[in-house]
Each structure stands twice: as structure tokens, then as C-alpha cells.
Amino acid sequence: MSMDAKKSMGWTVVLILMGMAALYGGSKWLVLLIPAAVLVWYGAGPMLRSGRN
Questions:
Q1: pTM metric for this prediction
Q2: How far apart are CA 10 and CA 29, in angstroms?
Q3: Which helix (H) or strand (E) holds 11?
Q4: What is the pLDDT at residue 9?
Q5: Of the residues 9, 36, 42, 47, which has the maximum number of CB atoms within 10 A of its CB?
Q6: What pLDDT score does 47 carry?
Q7: Cα distance between residue 26 and residue 20, in whole Å
Q8: What is the pLDDT of residues 2-52, one digit of tens each?
């Protein structure tokens, strides 16, 4: 598995965990989780590949 795929899967797991925390935490947690999720979403966006191939 390539490094790009591993990073993508890692960020996906982080976003899923944040979603579950929002479901169980209630509306008070949304004030914290929504900006954090947006930062993760843009941070995990596609980047230029730096590999040899």
C-alpha cells in the first residue's frame, strides 16, 4: 500500500471518529468538532505526488 493511501485512510478514520464524537457528545461538542473537521478535511486534501513514479 502506498504512503498516500495510508495517509488517506488515517485521515478518514480521524473524520469518522470526530463524527461519532459529535453523535455521542451532542450539540455542545459541535462548536469544537466542526472547525476541527474542516481543518482535517482541507489538510487531508489531495497533494502533488512526490514519489518516483
A1: 0.66
A2: 22
A3: helix 3-25
A4: 84
A5: 36
A6: 60
A7: 10
A8: 776 777 788 888 888 988 988 998 888 888 888 888 888 887 776 655 555
Separation of alpha carbons 14 and 16, rounded Å: 5
**Position 21, amino acid:** A
CB atoms < 10 A from the CB of 4, how many? 13
CA torsion through residues 7, 4, 23, 39, sign: positive
* Residue 39 CA: distances (Å) to CA of 2, 18, 31, 50, 53: 23, 12, 13, 22, 29
Q: Which three cell numbers stand for residue 53?
A: 513514479
Contact of 6 with 44, CB cutoff 8 Å: no
**pLDDT recorded at residue 46:** 66
SS3 content of the chain, % helix, strand, coil (to 5): 75, 0, 25
Q: What is the model's pLDDT at position 51?
A: 56
